[in-house]
Write a structure and sequence with these properties.
The protein is mostly beta strands. Helices cover 11% and strands 38% of the residues.
């Protein structure tokens, strides 16, 4: 399963807007250089599918997360709904391990209270950097199932 990096963003300080970038530098076990989550053990990188981003932008109904959710890496054509926790993503020289599949919902969200679906549960994931390097817009995204990073 492969896809393409559509856009890249980082958040320099918590609570500030995300900045669109042409490339991101990632460091193993640390995350995205210059991002406010750099150095965290969990959720170093947030990845979202382009179709879900489009859905968020078109969704007329408010959800607690929809207006404020931002991803670091937006991808197209990679079918993240089929990815599994522990799976690997290879983007150029960078290797990311999926640590969390889907975004957790808040009980106070109107979507949860009304029993409506939220695509963030299936189309986003969080990853830790296993091997650092540079990611650029247009790079190919490969989903890998084996620990050596070989495409299965």
């Amino acid at each position: 399963m492969s896809g393409t990096v559509i856009s890249l963003k980082l958040q320099k300080n918590k609570g500030e807007n995300f900045c669109e970038e042409e490339r991101l530098i990632l460091e193993a076990e640390k995350g995205i250089c210059g991002d406010c989550h750099y150095g965290s053990k969990k959720g170093q990188v947030c990845i979202l599918d382009e179709e879900c981003r489009r859905w968020i932008e078109e969704e007329n109904e408010e959800g607690l997360c929809l207006s404020r959710f931002q991803e670091n890496i937006l991808i197209g054509g990679a079918m993240p709904e089929k990815w599994q926790r522990g799976g690997l993503l290879r983007i150029g020289d960078v290797l990311l391990e999926i640590t969390q599949k889907g975004k957790k919902c808040f009980p106070e969200c109107s979507r949860v209270q009304d029993g409506r679906q939220c695509r963030l549960k299936k189309s986003c994931c969080f990853a830790a950097v296993q091997r650092g390097g540079m990611i650029c817009r247009g790079d190919e995204v490969l989903y890998c199932e084996s620990s050596d990073g070989n495409v299965s």
